[in-house]
Structure formats: structure tokens, C-alpha cells
Amino acid sequence: MRKYALLVVDVQTGLVNDELYNKEMVIQNIKMLIATARKSSIEVIYVRHDDGEGETLAHGTDQWKIYHEITPNVDEKIVDKKYNSAFFKTDLKSCLDKKHIDTLIVTGMQTEYCMDATVKSAFDSEYEVIIPEQTNSSADNAFLSGKNLYAFYNFSIWHNRFAKVVPLDDVTRLIKESKKEI
Questions:
Q1: CATH number of the domain bearing residue 124
Q2: How many domains does the chain divide into?
Q3: Which of 19, 90, 111, 113 reaches 20 to 30 Å from 13, CA-CA?
């Protein structure tokens, strides 16, 4: 019997306000997954990046805050980090292990940075990783468009290597069905 958690990685004001690929759809999909997880008693864990003083995502600034459309409930954990991976020098792994969570549903911002590092760290830590389609995004950079970054990481790098990239409806159904197991 699997025990799931939904990880919401770096969905922060300073990143969501960027010119993200498929921004509106991705935010709506993440909101829907959060609501579904909450109804099914699935742990929702937020990850928040701190770039350091003077940077866009500096601790305590408006840009650093969790995006207002997906604000955590008071009882939901927020993991603060200073590195790309949500696992590196944080208490995320111990929190997951205490709750016997073995499967992570990972969503969030900066596909090629913090999402990538977190997905690979989760895999290396022997968690099963599920990435719902259209629940992560990035902005264009000097080399690739946000659309190409999304496609490259989701379907070339992660899928069937570090994670299962699964249609959103299938993940929603999986979350709802897991309620029977809890």
C-alpha cells in the first residue's frame, strides 16, 4: 500500500510572475491537485526557495512568499531551502520518513532548476516519483523556450528514468482512490 505526499516546489510570487510557459493552466492544475489531495487526506508539503539577501527570492520579501492562489493551510508544512534540491540541507526526508511516505507527486516552478534537482534527489532517496503533466513550468531562457524546457525535462530526462510523468486526470484519480487505503 502506497503512502503519498504532494510536493509543491517553489510556487512563489517572484517565479509565478515571470513569463512562464502555460502559466494559467499550470497554476490551475496545481490548485486542483492541492484541493484533491486535501480532500483525500494526502499530505501537502510546500517548498520555498531563499536566494539570499539582495536577490529576487530573498527571505521575507514579497517575491519570496508562496503564490497567493495556493496559500498553504496553517497545518501544512513549508520546507525552506537555499539550494536547488528540496532535500539538500533540509528536514524534508526526515519529515517524509516519519510519516512513512514512499511516493511523491511533484509539481512546481523552474523545471530545469529546482524541480529537476528535487525530482532526482527524491529518486536517489528511493521515493517513487510521479509528475502530473502540465503541473510544472519555466520561463524562456537564452537557450530554450519554456515550452521546450517543459517537454525536454518531462518527457526526455525524467519520464521512465527518475519519475513517471503521468496525465493529470490519472494522478487525480490515483489521489482520490488512495483515500480508501489511508
A1: 3.40.50.850
A2: 1
A3: 90
